[in-house]
């Protein structure tokens, strides 16, 4: 797997150096990057190449890129790792069958900046965590843990037993997320598919169904998925 771009690459180097197989840097940028790569073991994996050879490493590299990291594939965490101590404040996200990599990447970025403990993704009918996720998230996927769930409904049942309250973010919600709304100290926020929303059985298993306050405009019925969760997470971050 190849990570492309300055910020995603530097995030991988900073947070997951042991996952790195090789680093490729343009010759002209040698001194600039060596100052940033302090780990001696990492320096052994650095390869300096000319521009033409650099562009041949991967099809997605463009003329503005100066560094590429080859790393191991991203590994999912266990649910137990995400849950942690059931008495401590914690926020988790469940992405119910999101398929757009742009949304998922941006959600990872928002999650990293709002102290989310982890993201839960269903095993099927969902986009995977790939190099695209890393690039779109600007390296946040290196920081935020994720878990692949075989059954979201069963996962919600487990989370409830671990003192989490379940909040589904859906346009049908009667509870409106505003400056008076308060999340619990241990919260799970669910976001549904870009077109179909949250599945009915998931909604029925939620403690709260919340919606965002918004202006009504014909043909524009809701916020973008990544924007919706960003608003909810920021509100939760301020409360906690």
Write a concise synopsis of the structure shown.
The chain folds into 2 domains: 2-71, no CATH class; 79-239, Alpha/beta knot, CATH 3.40.1280. It contains 10 helices and 11 strands.
Examine the coordinates and then state which fold CATH places here, giving the name of the CATH topology of the largest domain.
Alpha/beta knot
Please state how the strands of the largest beta sheet are arranged side by side.
Answer: 7-6-5-10-8-11-9
Q: Which outline best applies?
A: elongated
Could you name the CATH class of the largest domain?
A: Alpha Beta
Q: How many strand units?
A: 11
Q: Helical segment tally?
A: 10
Q: What's the arrangement of secondary structure elements?
A:
Elements: E1 2-4, H1 6-15, E2 20-26, H2 30-34, H3 40-43, E3 46-49, H4 51-55, E4 67-71, H5 79-83, E5 90-96, H6 101-113, E6 118-122, H7 131-136, E7 145-149, H8 152-161, E8 165-169, E9 175-177, E10 186-192, H9 200-204, E11 208-212, H10 225-239
Parallel strand pairs: 2-3, 5-6, 5-10, 6-7, 8-10, 8-11, 9-11
Antiparallel strand pairs: 1-4, 2-4
Overall description:
With 240 residues, this protein is of the alpha/beta class. The chain folds into 2 domains: 70 residues, no CATH class; 161 residues, Alpha/beta knot. Helices cover 32% and strands 23% of the residues. The protein contains 10 helices and 11 strands. The strands form 2 sheets. It has a 7-stranded parallel beta sheet with strand order 7-6-5-10-8-11-9. The protein has a 4-stranded mixed beta sheet with strand order 1-4-2-3. Helix 6 links the parallel strand 5 and strand 6. Helix 6 runs parallel beside helix 10. The longest helix is centred in the C-terminal third of the chain and has 15 residues. The radius of gyration is 20 Å and the shape is elongated. The two termini are 36 Å apart.
């Amino acid at each position: 797997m190849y990570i492309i771009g300055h910020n995603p690459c530097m995030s991988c180097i900073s947070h997951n150096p042991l996952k790195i197989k090789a680093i490729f840097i343009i010759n002209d940028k040698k001194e600039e990057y060596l100052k940033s790569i302090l780990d001696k073991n990492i320096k052994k994996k650095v390869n300096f190449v000319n521009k033409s050879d650099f562009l041949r490493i991967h099809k997605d590299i463009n003329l503005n890129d100066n560094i590429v990291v080859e790393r191991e594939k991203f590994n999912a965490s266990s649910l137990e790792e995400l849950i942690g101590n059931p008495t401590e404040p914690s926020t988790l996200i469940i992405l119910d069958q999101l398929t757009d990599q742009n949304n998922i990447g941006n959600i990872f970025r928002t999650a990293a900046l709002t102290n989310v403990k982890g993201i839960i993704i269903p095993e099927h009918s969902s986009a995977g965590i790939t190099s695209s996720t890393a690039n779109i998230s600007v390296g946040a996927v290196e920081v935020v843990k994720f878990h692949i769930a075989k059954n979201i409904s069963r996962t919600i049942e487990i989370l409830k037993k671990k003192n989490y309250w379940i909040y589904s973010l859906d346009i049908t919600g009667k509870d409106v997320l505003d400056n008076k709304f308060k999340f619990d100290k241990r919260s799970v926020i669910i976001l549904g598919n870009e077109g179909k929303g949250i599945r009915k059985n998931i909604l029925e298993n939620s403690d709260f169904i919340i919606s965002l306050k918004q202006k009504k405009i014909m043909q524009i019925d809701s916020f973008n998925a990544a924007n919706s969760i960003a608003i909810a997470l920021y509100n939760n971050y301020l409360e906690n």
